[in-house]
Please model this.
Amino acid sequence: MKTALIRSLFTRVTLCFAIIATLLLAGCSAQTTHKTLTPQTVTSYNTAYSGPKTTLVVGAFDNRSDYARGLFSTGGDQLGGQAKTVLKTHLQQTNRFRLVDRDSAAATGQEAKYLGSAQKIKGARYVVTGAVAEFGRKAIGDKQLFGLLGAGKKQIAYAKVQLNVVDSLTTEVVYSSQGAGEYALSEREVLGFGTNAGYDATLNGKVLDLAIREAVNAMVNDLESGRFSVATQ
Model:
């Protein structure tokens, strides 16, 4: 009787160890997952519009903030270049303007030669210039009972951009708009449980996109309400 009981107990213990080992191996194995995300767009994206459109070209977009401009910067205005690309996308997706691209003129000109045709570059009456006026990051944290009970941390990124629409014939600034945004990533650990995220570099791009999107939304709203008017071509 005792022998049978010992065998049964041994079998159960062995089975438990086998299950635990299987779970541990499954937890240690590499796994890959993927999902698609819907990018944030301007408010007027995919909305009907039958009004007149004017031709715009995006001019200089500079980083006027202190971010990435210090002694240890890598050189080149990467933030301004990124902002310019984002601005082009959002302006085009408003469906309220005709956008021409001077940055790709050399490449498109070469393609036109391959096609045996001459480029017919369209002039733009208005130039949109921009600047990243403010940009920064900070991390704030708190501790409960000197960190023994837990701690929290928040990463915050902030951006403010300014847009000016300039008449290329008169150099007059006919319109200006601004946009600002803030992105935050929070994490909290309680008694050893919770999240412990590292530095999230994607917050930079997200907050820059948000600020530019808000400036373009303001531009479209003022255009449709009559507070901003441009000559059509």
Notes: The helical segments are 2-28, 78-93, 105-114, 202-225. The CA atoms of residues 164 and 176 lie 4 Å apart. The two ends are 100 Å apart (CA to CA). Residues 190-194 have pLDDT under 50 and may be disordered.
